[in-house]
Amino acid sequence: MKRNTSIKLLSGTEIMTDKFCIRFPASTAGCKSQDEEYCIVDLDGQERRIRFHDYGEIYDIPGLYEYLFYEKLKCTSPEVVAGLLVGAIGKSSVRISELDVLDVGAGNGIVGELLRQHGINSIVGIDIIAEAAEATRRDRPAVYDEYHVEDLQNLSSDARSNLEAKGFNCLISVGALGYGDIPAGAFANAYNLITDGGWIAFNINAGFLEKGDSTGFAQLIGRMVDSGVLKVIAEHQYCHRLSVNGRPLSYMAVIGIKERSVPEDFLS
């Protein structure tokens, strides 16, 4: 898939790359929200329009996810969230090697790989997208102890039994919450798989934590904190990545401790 081609940026300049020829839309009128963003990729002389949230299509093309989001759009979230988690644990009595992590919305294993580098030895991934699991097996086969392709709002009985038996004491979710990818109910179900006293690390578009949010996250997280379900240890607002027009996308990273499970009535 590597080739020597040029990429035309929004500024009109071109750079040479041996990876992909990617073009962002000349007009961003059709990308009014993050969920609508797309790019046009030249694959062996054929142009293919790919919406950013159609992750299955992106994962199918080796290296495209990393090149698009990390090299071109400067995504920093794995390092930010993992760094905050490791920093918070370093100030506690818990050793990083004692964590049994559930990586929610694991994608193609970038976050899991980073956690391994930080010294975490036990990581299980879960994602609703089969192509994500396939990409992880292709690109990062040694990262996860197990990888489940499951809908967290409708877990199979076998997967539920397996996950509940793990006794996870840490949940991490990076770049996966909101926009229908992992709705509030799915996040709550994943949260409830973590043992009381376990570590929680996630990020989310800052707009989803504001009044008027339609995703349900503002209400859910607010109730979790106010009722003592989640004890927040650290918060950090930062630039998750750039949009297709170069605008910073503001996200909030949250590190906390699970005090107890999310009650069912929180989601009604």
Explain what you see:
Helices cover 28% and strands 27% of the residues. Strand 4 and strand 5 form a beta hairpin. It folds into 2 domains: 5-72, no CATH class; 77-267, Rossmann fold, CATH 3.40.50. The protein is α/β, with parallel strands linked by helices. The strands form 3 sheets. The protein has a 7-stranded mixed β-sheet with strand order 8-7-6-9-10-12-11, sandwiched between helices. The termini are far apart. It is globular and about 55 Å long. It has 8 helices and 12 strands.
Strand order within the widest beta sheet: 8-7-6-9-10-12-11
- The termini sit apart by 47 Å
Spell the H/E element sequence.
Answer: EEEEEHHHEHEHEHEHEHEE
Number of domains: 2
Helix content range: 25-40%
Radius of gyration: 19 Å
CATH superfamily of the largest domain: Vaccinia Virus protein VP39
Biggest β-sheet strands, sense, barrel? 7 strands, mixed
Q: Could you say what the CATH topology of the largest domain is called?
A: Rossmann fold
Low-confidence stretches: 1-17
What CATH architecture of the largest domain do you see?
Answer: 3-Layer(aba) Sandwich
In round numbers, the mean pLDDT is 89
Shape designation: globular
Total number of helical segments? 8
What CATH first level of the largest domain would be assigned?
Alpha Beta
SSE layout and pairing:
Blueprint: E1 5-8, E2 14-17, E3 21-23, E4 38-43, E5 46-51, H1 55-59, H2 64-72, H3 77-90, E6 100-104, H4 110-117, E7 122-127, H5 130-139, E8 146-149, H6 157-166, E9 170-173, H7 184-191, E10 199-205, H8 217-226, E11 230-242, E12 248-258
